[in-house]
Automatic annotation (TrEMBL):
InterPro entries: Bact_polysacc_biosynth/exp, P-loop_NTPase, Wzc-like_C. It comes from Sphaerotilus uruguayifluvii. Its EC number is 2.7.10.1. The keyword Metal-binding does not apply. This is Receptor protein-tyrosine kinase. GO terms for molecular function: transmembrane receptor protein tyrosine kinase activity. The keyword RNA-binding does not apply.
Length: 324
């Protein structure tokens, strides 16, 4: 069946289902009046009730060779149902005003700092090092105590990875006790990680949020749950992490996780991801707290550290070093 026959069959199915599928007139008469012309189907709005416009899955049919479909990392779709994730708008101007990295700052000092920090993380994720690291594309951002800048760093890291040519990024608000990623991005709370773990009927595509930042997707923390530690330690979480690690091989998953010392959730997650980035605030976090935090993530194969708010001659916000 050629492309035109496939399109005609699809249009007939949509009409039988109750959709109104307009076919605009072409200059000089109907499509059939144009020698060699092919009917054009406009790209309509999202599917609705009977009588509404046709679903967005109907593509324009042009008089051109068929092109193989390319799956975009920005569209999370369930093959069996056709459902896809909701799109939201990140308040990029607000993030920029508050000092976050945004796509328009590709040559800023913060952008350069994040390039230096992310490079070894991405090398590990791509398997470019001698050490084989399971789930190396799962990166957990933590701190010893609250208020050290881990969420600020996690958002900046995700933004920086989204600027990569060959990679996309999923930012997971895994701080299920005090989620703040969506609020900082100017987005209303919605279902997310906790809901997927508790309800087997939910799929990732039901709760992921596509954004107006190319190649950046969000996964909210979801509905608060008193058994959050147990859910993160469950078989459902293990299955979810496997899916996240393998669903798109060119995607990096960044988890903004709870602080290590006052919670147990981060310890459970750290034992299941490939890399951990420890954010340490200069002049605030004590040596004892850092030592305790490192002990809590010792099961993770790779632990790197970022020294936040460090005072240097160049006034850089971050320092960077490998954990020992």
């Amino acid at each position: 069946m050629n492309t035109i026959e496939q399109a005609a069959k699809r249009l007939a199915e949509l009409k039988r289902a109750g959709y109104d599928v307009p076919v605009p007139d072409m200059p000089g008469g109907s499509p059939a009046a144009q020698p060699g012309a092919t009917p054009a189907v406009p790209l309509p709005a999202e599917a609705g009730p009977a009588g509404a416009s046709a679903p967005a899955a109907v593509a324009a049919v042009a008089a051109a060779p068929a092109v193989p479909a390319v799956r975009s990392a920005q569209v999370e779709m369930l093959p069996s149902s056709g459902r896809r994730s909701r799109e939201v708008m990140i308040d990029v101007a607000r993030l920029e005003r508050e000092g976050y990295l945004v796509p328009t700052q590709a040559r800023s000092q913060l952008a350069e700092q994040m390039r230096i920090i992310k490079r070894p993380l991405l090398a590990n994720a791509r398997g470019e090092t001698a050490q084989h690291i399971p789930r190396a594309n799962l990166i957990q951002v933590v701190s010893a105590m609250p208020g050290e800048g881990k969420t600020f760093f996690a958002i900046n890291l995700a933004m920086s990875i989204a600027m990569e040519v060959d990679l996309s990024v999923l930012l997971v608000d895994a701080d299920v006790l005090r989620p703040s990623v969506l609020a900082r991005c100017g987005i209303e709370p919605s279902r997310g990680l906790m809901d997927v773990l508790k309800s087997p009927s939910l799929d990732l595509a039901d709760v992921m949020l596509r954004t107006n930042v190319p190649k950046l997707t969000l996964l909210p923390a979801g509905t608060a749950n008193a058994q959050s530690t147990e859910l993160l330690a469950s078989a459902a979480m293990e299955k979810l992490l496997d899916e996240l690690a393998s669903r798109f091989p060119d995607r990096i998953i960044v988890f903004d996780a709870p602080p290590l010392i006052p919670t147990t959730e981060s310890r459970v997650l750290a034992s299941r991801v490939g890399q951990v980035v420890m954010v340490v605030e200069a002049g605030k976090t004590t040596h004892g707290q850092v030592t305790q935090a490192y002990a809590a993530v010792e099961q993770c194969p790779i632990v790197l550290s970022v020294l936040n708010r460090a005072s240097t001659k160049s006034n850089e916000a971050y320092g960077y070093y490998y954990a020992t």
